[in-house]
Amino acid sequence: MQIKAFRGYRPGKDKIHKVASRPYDVLTTAEARQEAAGNPYSFLNIVKPEIGFPPGADPYSPEIYRAAAENFQSLINDGTFTRDEHECLYIYEMCRDKRPKTGIVAAAAVEDYLDGSIRKHEQTRVDKETDRAKHIRTTMLNVEPVMFAYRYDREIDDLVETVKTSQPEYEFDDVDGVRHRFWMVDKPGTVAAIIRAFSRIPATYVADGHHRSAAAAIVSRELNRQDGYNGAGAAHNYFLAVHFPGNQLEILDYNRLVAELNGLDAGMFVRELESSFLVERTGSQPVRPKRHVETGMYLAGNWYRLVVRPGRYDATDARASLGVSILSDLVLQRILDIHDQRTDRRIDFAGGAHGPGKLQDRVDSGEMAVAFTLCPVSVQELMDISDSGRLMPPKATWFEPKLRSGLVVYSLEE
Fold first, then answer.
1. Residue 119 to residues 113, 122, 384, 388, 397: CA-CA distances in angstroms?
2. Mean pLDDT, the chain, integer
3. How does 137-149 read in b/e, with b if 16+ C-beta sit within 10 Å?
4. What does pTM read for this prediction?
5. Alpha helices in 169-322 (DSSP H)
């Protein structure tokens, strides 16, 4: 795999706790506006620039994207962000419950994404690709990194651990109780050793950031067709990523809510389910499945455990055996007539970090008709399915903790 050192834009140590923000896609506009209130340094002003406009403003209008570029330039002008003098790699550690996850921050090659060496596990939505591409095109920046996984490598791990014996550039705790530490890797010998070791890694896997990866490829191809932007080594042919060894990552369940039952009442819906599942009512006891053959369901004030009947799915097929696939095939498509989860407005998604209580509340309020809890996909399953060239259903994985935005920014201009 190709990775590249780069001159990152970074905030000063005295501002990092004010700058660092949640990623753009985990907050609504209203939540982001509230979180950034009174803090002109918040990186939410760059990743969700619509928060600076009146409620109801079109978040996809050209002036919104221009505001992102202007807001970042303002942080450069006032000295909040400066650019490193030399090309560096960076090490980024997140630690919660004494379980550190440490990744290498580097520029990943668009070429590797296009030839399949960077492997994806889900389809993307055109509207979200377009949104992120407009943001990149207008700012000429990658403001948020993609999260990649790679199969554990002892040599890389040893190099990373050596860097971590030095004093971190940043160290802070976020509001979720996660400690973030960040190191510069600016010694040429160490940079070269990490890049060389990484060149022997056969593949990386998109863990979180499919749309950002696709958008980076879109902009790269556009710029390569323009005069003055050609050359394989040009900055726009790379994009910002944090590469984590897969044995450190944890995937949580990514659950589903559906707004209506396709014309069925609750009793009729349960009877439809019984053709494919053994249905057990658990009452007030939430169901959090530990096996892919089980699905939890909250419907009309009660929790249920659904166990798929033998023969109703292909147990020899790794993708078909996932809980998220079983739900998609036997419930969402067959009963509820939801065939494209990326675009159907009847379905919504909730990461497992929120817990089943949030799902229950949304059903009890009448906003949603039914909620489903799923067994998490493992990192090994993600890699194996990606290696086979197949895709999982949309929103199959939820990674925690989330990367903080604003620690380092990658410029597409040299």
1. 7, 10, 10, 10, 15
2. 95
3. ebbebbbbbbbbb
4. 0.92
5. 188-198, 210-224, 266-273
